[in-house]
Amino acid sequence: MTQPVRYHIFQAYGVELEYMIVDRNTLDILPIADVLLKEALGHIGSDYENDMITWSNELVLHVIELKSTRPESNFNTLASAFADNVTRINEILAKSDAMLLPTAAHPWMNPATETRLWPHDSNEVYNIYNRIFDCRGHGWSNLQSTHLNLPFYDDEEFAKLHAAIRLVLPILPALCASSPILDGSVTGSVDMRMSYYKTNQSRIPSITGKVVPEAVFSKRQYLNTIYDKIKADIAPFDPENILNPIWVNSRGAIPRFDRGSIEIRIMDIQECPPADLAIQALVIETIKALVNEKFCNLEEQMRAKTEILAGILDETSVNGQQAEILSSEFPMAFGFESPCTAKGLWKHILGRLLMQADSELEHWGPELKVILDEGTLSDRLLRSLNNDYSLDSIKATYRRLADCLAQNKMFLG
Question: How many of the other CB atoms lie within 10 Å of CB of 79?
């Protein structure tokens, strides 16, 4: 059996983008991911490799995942490849009068009646999840995210990477929230997807924990304190022993020690690949600066309390960039004053990063300017609605979003 190639920290990255498939006329969801994959493959299957980008099925039939086939280091090229694949998919879907729709939640889908699970190969895991948790809910069948996989080579690199990622997770919704509307109504939370993410597996609390991972900084400690606990807790629900604790772990950042990577999973997907890749670039450069102790040292990062970080994540999930960060320790970890807003903290971080001679962020200046000046995609969506929250108004706004994805451009509210 061939062992996966192991990369050193910040050597290359894996990116995954999830999109909804909807009716081109009504924007209602269409459960035809298997039809799309069959058209590409010539037969029903789970994965279609198209050079740099692979298309894959997800839990539900109205979602398709696009992911980098291999770890990549050039995000400019990767963003173009994602955009090209979106175009190709939309061309195929047009035959079914369908198209792709971005954002982390469909604004009027009814999961209780519209959920259709993937029925084909390797669906036994999905069936077990459905049996345990009932996947006919927003937290299972109506959430689309962007995943970022960062490599580590050994325990030393894992410790540095995990410590840095824990500090960045709580403020991610202030960059990427895109789920302000569910069930045809404004929810009052810019990242409503996170509310469901935190609670959709509450029947077995150890699976998700507090979303922000515990202060664990070695493989042995992680296996003993987290994976062993998950394994014991899922056993009564999985007598056939099909579920692997590594797959089941649903914290906001999940280490895969078998392939040497940590996957960040709590970012709402944006309106077009350049917006997603701009956010990924900023997140990576922030984590890199923490790992290199440009903001604070490793010992200070390791001391960050999970409860405080989880509380900040709760606040940014609701209020996004306007969230007030009252903890004095958290902004100080980035060399910033307290109290502050999440927006102010991100602007400070970006400013510090742009001062570095080797900054990779100059290319993403236009996208990051929109996000930090005009607000998260949720902010821009709500501004576009202009206090008209009727279904017709919501549909008109989300049609503009579909156009943004098709045309590979940012959404301006």
Answer: 24
